[in-house]
Amino acid sequence: MSTNYSTKNQAYKHLSEAERGKIEAYLCSGIKPAEIARRLGKNRSTITCEINKGSITQVKKVNGQKVYYQHCYADAVQNRYRYAREASYYLKLDRVSDNFLIEFTEAMKEKPRIHSVDTFVHTYKLKHVDVVVPSTKTLYIYIHHGLLEIMVIDLPRAVRIRKKFSKRPFTKKHLGKSIKERPKRSIIVPVLEIGKSIQFWGERQ
């Protein structure tokens, strides 16, 4: 029976329930996290993180003494992952406070404008602790989708952002003019006889 291993590492990717089960089985067989990462085609940091999340302290008796050890359970990791996914949600616009939207619109249209989107969200959270406030990223999503009175053009920094590209240094070689582009000049060719010379007009060879 042949086993195919992937050599492509993926850093911090979500694992499936089957992959978590394989991790538990590999650990029970004494396989190290680095080898598990190689077999699953994942980054070693991803495997280590999953092991730490699913490790539960167990106790057993050895020669009448209690020995504590860590055991990784795939079910524990999967349940924690599922609960985290259920707890995370995209804040709908109708759940946002009307007072927040009004103050945000006024602050963005104020001239001269004092707050950016980020600073306004931070300041509003400090003043209204009990109010659910959308994140800066969520507000930008609202703006780019045209869900608010504020448009992208009202945010100079959002319009001004450009993707930066790294330029490779280019060294230009200056070789000078070619022979054909050089000006013509006379070349005096000496001869064997003393006091005599032949003057030749033409291109330099």
> What is the string of helix and strand elements?
HHHEEHHHHHEE
Strand order of the largest sheet: 1-2
| The CATH C-level class name of the domain at 17-87 | Mainly Alpha
- Structural category: alpha+beta
Written overview of the protein:
The chain is of the alpha+beta class and 205 residues long. Among the domains are: 17-87, Arc Repressor Mutant, subunit A; 93-160. 40% of the residues lie in helices and 14% in strands. It contains eight helices and four strands; from the N terminus they run H-H-H-E-E-H-H-H-H-H-E-E. It has helices spanning 17-28, 33-40, 44-54, 74-87, 98-109, 117-127, 136-144, 156-160, and strands spanning 55-62, 65-72, 185-190, 197-202. The strands form two sheets. A two-stranded antiparallel ribbon has the order 1-2. Strands 3-4 form a two-stranded antiparallel sheet. The longest helix has 14 residues, at 74-87. The N and C termini lie far apart (75 Å). InterPro entries: IS30-like_HTH (IPR025246).
